[in-house]
Amino acid sequence: MAALRPTGGMPPAGRRAFLADLSPAYFGLVMATGIVSLGAGMMGLPWVARLLFLLNVAQYGVLCVLYVLRACRHPRRFFGDMVDHLKGPGYFTTVAGTGILASQFIVQTDSVRVGFVLWAVAAALWFALTYTIFTAFTVKRDKPTLDQGISGAWLLAVVATQSLAVSSALLAARIGQPFRLELNLMALSMWLWGGMLYIWMMSLIFYRYVFFRFSPGDLAPPYWINMGAMAISTLAGSLLILNAPQAPYLVSLLPFLKGFTVFYWATGTWWIPMLLLLGIWRYVFQRFPFQYDPLYWGAVFPLGMYAACTWQMDHAMGFGFLAALPQGFLYVALLAWGLTFAGMARRIVRILRTPARA
Fold it and tell me: String of b and e for 162-190 (b: at least 16 CB within 10 Å)?
């Protein structure tokens, strides 16, 4: 599980080493910033939402450049990580990050054309990565054992799938025919497939939890995706419920949509106390060092997504009594985002200063 453990202090290496070692999961930064921005916009903090949106556009552009440079200068590392059981699923953050940025353009700027282009890029990345990674995992000769090969990062495949469901539903709500019905069908299909994928993967992850030795280093931040995958599934289901008047086949499925949306939300809610207890065990009782790692964005994202999905579900289901819950989680997500961003900034400064010290 070493690939998912925090790296600790920055070794005496320069910018070239940073590029070679760039985490495949670094687009989690875009995922986390994007959903916190969307949540802030939902809950009456427009200036926070706007600031984070502009920052996210810049972050997305920088990461695209870095990933392309890594693929060109370090192709063995770049593509080798893609077929590694622990690192490979991290590439699904590129899909989820692109899909969430598409949702930001659609919701926060009404730029349907830009949103559509990003949605198309996310769909192409989803198709390429899904069938590349899982085919490679299936046919490769040397495979790790279950306890050494699976982690919560695998659920990034679910998040990527549901991000397409969310962006498809948002596009469908803002365009006319001939594509409205087709986009709603794609959103529905991705929502259903993401749920099935979660059941498959979560069964293996939970089995690994309770039947194999579990050390503090194994509890990497992506385990928060256990909750985040259900949260984004809830958000997608809520949007499908709101889109039902636009598509007759969604109207006929409304009881199913509402039931499974609440089911996803309840499952995600169950995970929160469990993950908090495991975090206390890791950092308090086992005294595991708390230092910045890119994987911590995989813990910030679920907090923001839970706030956003709870707000949207409360609206779609007409509950009216859950308003305080998403507000509280939004502020927790903003705090977690700020602390993680400060850690990232400090790490970048150290990297930039390394050649001078050498």
Answer: bbbbbbbbbbbbeeeeeebeebbebbbeb
pLDDT at 221 (0 to 100)? 72
Domain 2-357 in this protein, CATH class: mainly alpha
Whether 352 contacts 8, CB under 8 Å: no
Give the angle subtended at the CA of 158 by the CAs of 223 and 92, to the nearest 5°: 85
DSSP string computed for 179-246 = THHHHHHHHHHHHHHHHHHHHHHHHHHHHHHHHS---GGG--GGGGHHHHHHHHHHHHHHHHHHHGGG
| Higher-scoring residue by pLDDT: 136, 293 | 136
Integer Cα distance of 133 and 135 in angstroms? 6
| Reported pTM | 0.91
Token digits for 187? 């959103």
Domain borders along the chain are 2-357
| Cβ proximity of 160 and 182 under 8 Å | no
Q: Which residues contact 279 (CB under 8 A, 6 or more apart)?
A: 219
Peptide bond into 178 cis (omega under 30): yes
Question: Please, which pLDDT band fits residue 358 given cuts at 50, 70 and 90?
Answer: very low
Query: Tell me, what amino acid is at 158?
Result: V
State the DSSP code for 2: G
Distance from C-alpha of 224 to C-alpha of 37, rounded to nearest angstrom: 19
Cβ burial 10-48 (10 Å sphere, 16+ → b, else e): beeeeeeebbeebbbbbbbbbbbbbbbbbbbbbbebeeb
b/e code 84-97 from CB counts within 10 Å (16+ = b): bbbbbbbbbbbbbb
Residue with tokens 């365009």: 175
